[in-house]
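ok, trying the design again with the full structure, not the truncated one.
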């Protein structure tokens, strides 16, 4: 049985199948799957070291489990959620056609975080 090599076409149509380029997608998008395990692994590591985190948890009036969960949640929000939210908002706000048609929507997106923060601090 003969083995043959298959070549992929390099036409512009095939290149449009990628989000950006083939190299970018394979490097940053596909390999980012590895990062999915990082928060859960960090949580498990913090739980496996109660002697290290128990004094801090006791000072904050919580348990090591709760401290671990909240540290991971805050880190993910800081490094993933926040940048995504602000990049999306900035892109939307600087789209002049959208901003002209939906000005109240843009203002509400500024007010909502202030209300949520106020309620969280109350």
């Amino acid at each position: 049985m003969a083995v043959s090599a298959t070549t992929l076409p390099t036409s512009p149509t095939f290149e449009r199948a990628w989000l950006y380029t083939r190299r970018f997608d394979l490097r940053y998008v596909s390999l980012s799957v590895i990062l999915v395990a990082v928060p859960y692994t960090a949580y498990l590591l913090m739980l496996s070291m109660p002697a290290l985190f128990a004094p801090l948890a006791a000072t904050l009036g919580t348990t090591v489990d709760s401290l671990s969960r909240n540290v991971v949640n805050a880190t993910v929000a800081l490094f993933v959620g926040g940048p995504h939210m602000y990049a999306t908002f900035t892109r939307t706000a600087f789209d002049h056609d959208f901003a002209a048609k939906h000005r109240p929507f843009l203002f509400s997106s500024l007010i909502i975080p202030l209300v949520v923060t106020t309620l969280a601090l109350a």
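Keeping the full-length input from now on. The chain has a mean pLDDT of 83.
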